[in-house]
Amino acid sequence: MYAKVENNQIVRANSSLGAFGIPISSTVAEREAQGVYEIIYDNTNLKDSRYYWNGAESMVFANNAVTASYAPATGKDVEDKNAVDEDGNNVLDEDGNQMIIKGLKTIFKEEVKAQAKNLLSSSDWYVIRKAEDAGSTIPADIATYRAAVRTRSNEMETAIDGAADAAAMEVLYTYTNTGTEESPVYTRPLGEWPKL
């Protein structure tokens, strides 16, 4: 990204040098002589948008450089809440039911349920066959795997329910090296799905 500076004020920004009438092959000195500076990003306050609402971006021109930074991020709500309009009135759907804004707990538990469903789907036919044919059986390794997926799903949902705020939710999904530098082992508090 580049910014055009006139009279020590940023007048516009664009990702293309061509938008400023400057050839791509221009040097830094040539660009800056025309008041066009490459934007330097300070991402100190920028956080993972799965868990946070990032603050507004602002740009300043100082010391012959354009720097973009972000206002502090705000954690997303972990609990569901009623949708309200700008006047604080409840927002209803077309059937007159209260509209709900899903919190992180609901969003992530829905993801876990979808992942579990996907993992179980490849072996569902064993269960269907057993239901339709009393003489058939489900192989022990398949039955064990299916039970382990359901158990892990419940454990993950319990961990998600226990997250007090966005930061705690982020920690659940953050991988850290629990091994050594030579033999790294990356794990996350939420755990992993069993393998068949």
Q: How would you explain this protein's 3D organization?
A:
It is built from 5 helices and 11 strands, in the order ββαβββββββααααββ. The chain is α+β, with helices and mostly antiparallel strands. The protein has 2 domains: 74 residues, no CATH class; 84 residues. The strands form 4 sheets. A 5-stranded mixed beta sheet has the order 2-1-3-6-5. Strands 4-7 form a two-stranded antiparallel sheet. A two-stranded antiparallel ribbon has the order 8-9. α2 packs antiparallel against α4. The longest helix is centred in the last third of the chain and has 22 residues. The mean pLDDT is 95.
Brief description of this entry?
By secondary structure, the protein is an alpha+beta fold.
